[in-house]
Structure formats: C-alpha cells, structure tokens
Design brief:
7-stranded mixed β-sheet, alpha/beta, globular, 245 residues, two-stranded parallel sheet, Glycerol-3-phosphate (1)-acyltransferase
Length: 245
Amino acid sequence: MYWVLKAVLTPILRFLFRVRVEGDENVPTHGPAILASNHLSFSDSIFLPLMLRRRVTFVAKAEYFEDKKTAWFFRAVGQIPIKRGGGSASLRALESAQEVLEAGQLFGIYPEGTRSPDGRLYKGHTGVARLALRTKAPVFAVAMLGTREAQPIGQVKPRFFMPITIKISRPLTFERFHDRPTDPLALRQITDEIMFELCELSGQDYVPTYAKRKDAVEAVAAEPAHLVSVEGRAPARDNPAVLAV
C-alpha cells in the first residue's frame, strides 16, 4: 500500500506544490539511516517520505490512529504509533524504531517532539541520540522549509502552489560516543549537535526550551526575555553549559 500511495501522490504533490529537494544524494541507497527533521506542519510527514526514493517510517502520535480520518493513511504506510505521555509506550516506540533500523531501513524522527508553535526551532529530545547509539546508524538532519506556510497548524486545507524545500545534510556519525550509550551528557551533546545542524540548514531561530503545543502561542508572546537569550543561535557543539541543560 505504501508504494501504491507513493506512486499516486508523488506526482500530484509535485503538480500542486513547487517542491525542491537538496541533498537527497546524501541519503544512502541501502542500509539503516535516521532522518532527524524539524517539524513545522502536519504535511512534513507526507512531503518527506513521498519525495525520497526509499521508504521512510515515522513514529506518529496515537491520536492519528484513533481518528478515522487519518488512521487508514498511517496504517497503510506502516507508521509506528506513540503516546506523548512517555513511559512504556515511548519505550515500545523506540524499540520498534530500533527494529526498523536493524532491518536496514530509513527511520524518520522529529527531535522537537511536536510541531513548532511559532516557526522557531526548539530544544531536541534525546530519543534520536539513543537510537543513533543503539543502532550505530548515521543521522541526517532534514530541514523542511515552506510547509508551515503551505499548511499552518490548525488549517486542514493546504495552500496550493506554495514553494516547499527539503534540505538534507551530510551524514552525522557519533563513533566517539559508542562506549557511552546511556550517558546523559553524551546523549545531550549528540542531540544538540543534530539540532545545530538543523538550525544551520533551516535558518530558524533557536529556542533553548522544549516546545509545547498547549497555549504555546500565548506563552511565547509573554515569554521573559532571559528565557530566549540565545534565540537565533544554534546550540553550541561542545559547550558544557549546553550539555547540562
């Protein structure tokens, strides 16, 4: 069903939107790889898989599988449900993601954990680092540009003929941390390096706090200046202060 949907929808998307992919030659033609993407719109999970030649599996929030309007699509393309509450459901999702990578496939993940409420790039969760160290798979930062304008949060019908750009980095590998798979400092540094690459690719302003969907717009508007003191700069690659956050 995945390849049927891809064959049908890809030419339609290319007709309805001005899609450009940069760096797709960096993605290996075989073997496991992690695609760590920023997240601006629901349509990110549609554009990226349909524009790459290889199959991409994402985790998707459980609500998509409970809603009849979206459940059929996510089941058809073999996505993995995950509950946001954490705990055993999140652990099972990571284990499923590991199985995807150990089978030599591509796995897509949003390190921010949710869509950006305002278009800025938020602090990444360390799940992507855990996967990278568990499987030793290379990580590719993926910047989605234009999807927020094409389909803002809360808008069901997208705006057609908008430009969409997908930028894919060169592989990021973390051999120097392979002997520290559970070290919190190592997991944080790997995650911050991935977010640094995402920030460079996307040009987004960086916010050193986790994104929250609920009341996010109001919270950002009222946010004290000291909480965004490093906005506009990516997390430092080897800054101990960043690692401790």
